[in-house]
Structure to design on (520 residues):
């Protein structure tokens, strides 16, 4: 049973009776920065310089650094740690171009006390995570990945870390989503263990060492965070990431900050550098949490940008500025690529991308396009569309893949696509050339109905030509049924280029929904 306790005035009431032995800990945290080194607009895409100058932008590492430095200064006489719950990598041209160097540089400037490994740290294989681990001076941890069989990572990733803060030992434990082998590229030699069992083992090990204050720094998503808070005995707080969940006590529709599961507070700080979280815990002499309060802090234009970082970012942006600012199309309205849309329903960005894929290969006998919603990373605002914006939407350098599978396999793929709907999983299928309906009240594996290819019901025994991206075709996001497809070719043009060219040819783009996906 999830309850929300000890926020706001309630937390203050508890703290009013603090004994002299009580210990207060400030936890400043971010998660899922996703290479948003530069400021972002309200659609979480890279902000134009002129908009930033006019105060219309949010976040960016220069604001993250300023706010964390401010909090360190304000709380200089208090106990404070700074944590990152993972996914520094992937999401902008900064990562595409420099492959982690910029994220490492910026993280060092902030100086985290610990960072969780996120799934996207594996996007360039175990070598990508190794680069991060060896590039920063603070520990990058993950307790439920067994890397002992990896010649790249063996001995490099700690299960947990103990921080000495104000004379007390603070244990930081961590877990990474077990489906990372489907959402990224850790390779066959990284073995994932059950998150709850692994975290409990780490709590027990730390408790045996006399550590009584233990924080779970996780990259598993908010639903699993809630499970962890209720199931792992001895954990005092869960600071999470992965699901990009908005926690706030002032913004409508957000989860309460913190949200309590019993006496365990759970928090996240959305994503994309837009917020910094500040959780304040009070412990009694036995190490029990007696109060939990705080909130996320919006990094809007009122937060000054660290000028040293601004200068460094400008230097790094130089080589990619021409490509980033090149106008490729115009849009008559906002093209919705928001995570909450494209992982749950037909979205206009998904339609454009899927239609672009199908249009590129229609002369090859291909009838169907399938794009994973998780591969769509931002919206695009109305007006001129730059290549930089398109690459922020599609940053993964995926290529078009064409192949043939039966109608039965396509239905199986769609079932996979809606199988984790409740978790907002990235496998949700955006499509072209076909329509389908789904019903989440039905059991997983039997949610799909009314599948049409063109104007005809799908034929389970018929062979269809399909276009997707190389990540999905090779089994990413659970699409394992495509691995054995016939006549597979994974080396088509870059999906971002295909989308930009389609938008240019069909501009000005008017975003559209046409009922190709129906939720019953």
């Amino acid at each position: 049973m999830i309850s929300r306790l000890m926020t706001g005035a309630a937390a203050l009431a508890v703290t009013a009776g603090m004994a002299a032995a009580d210990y207060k800990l400030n936890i400043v945290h971010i998660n899922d920065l996703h290479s948003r080194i530069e400021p972002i607009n309200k659609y979480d895409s890279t902000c134009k310089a002129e908009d930033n100058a006019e105060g219309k932008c949010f976040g960016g590492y220069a604001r993250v650094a300023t706010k964390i430095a401010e909090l360190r200064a304000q709380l200089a006489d208090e106990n404070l740690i700074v944590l990152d719950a993972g996914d520094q990598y992937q999401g902008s041209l900064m990562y595409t171009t420099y492959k982690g160097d910029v994220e490492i540089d910026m993280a060092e400037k902030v100086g985290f006390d610990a960072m969780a490994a996120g799934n996207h740290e594996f996007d360039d294989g175990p070598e990508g995570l190794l680069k991060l681990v060896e590039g920063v001076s603070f520990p990058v941890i993950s307790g439920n990945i067994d890397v002992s069989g990896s010649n790249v990572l063996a001995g490099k990733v700690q299960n947990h870390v103990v921080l000495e803060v104000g004379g007390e030992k603070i244990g930081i434990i961590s877990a990474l989503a077990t489906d990372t082998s489907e959402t990224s590229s850790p390779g066959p030699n990284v073995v994932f263990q059950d998150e709850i069992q692994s975290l409990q083992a780490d709590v027990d090990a730390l408790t045996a060492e006399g550590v009584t204050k233990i924080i779970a720094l996780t990259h598993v998503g908010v639903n699993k965070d809630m499970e962890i808070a209720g199931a792992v005995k001895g954990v005092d707080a869960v600071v999470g990431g992965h699901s990009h969940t908005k926690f706030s006590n002032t913004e409508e529709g957000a989860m309460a900050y913190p949200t309590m599961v019993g006496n365990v507070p759970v928090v996240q700080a959305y994503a994309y550098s837009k917020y910094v979280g500040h959780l304040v815990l009070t412990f009694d002499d036995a190490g029990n949490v007696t109060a939990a309060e705080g909130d996320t802090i919006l990094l809007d234009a009122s937060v000054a940008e660290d000028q040293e970082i601004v200068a460094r970012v400008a230097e790094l942006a130089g080589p990619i500025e021409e490509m980033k600012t090149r106008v490729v199309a115009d849009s008559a309205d906002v093209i919705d690529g928001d995570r909450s849309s494209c992982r749950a329903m037909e979205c206009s960005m998904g339609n454009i991308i899927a239609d672009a894929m199908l249009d590129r290969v229609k002369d090859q006998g291909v009838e169907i396009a399938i794009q994973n919603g998780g591969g769509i990373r931002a919206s695009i605002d109305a007006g001129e569309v730059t290549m930089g914006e398109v690459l922020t939407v599609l940053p993964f350098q995926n290529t078009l893949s064409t192949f043939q599978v039966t109608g039965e396999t396509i239905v199986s793929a769609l079932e996979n696509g809606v199988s984790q709907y409740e978790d907002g999983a990235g496998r949700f299928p955006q499509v072209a050339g076909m329509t389908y309906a789904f019903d989440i009240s039905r059991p997983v594996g039997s949610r799909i109905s009314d599948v049409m290819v063109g104007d005809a019901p799908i034929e389970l025994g018929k062979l269809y030509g399909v276009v997707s991206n190389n990540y999905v075709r090779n089994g990413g996001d659970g699409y394992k049924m495509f691995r054995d497809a016939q006549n597979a070719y994974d080396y088509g043009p870059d999906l971002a280029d295909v989308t930009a060219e389609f938008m240019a040819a069909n501009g000005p783009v008017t975003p559209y929904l046409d009922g190709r996906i129906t939720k019953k």
Remarks:
- The longest strand covers residues 289-298.
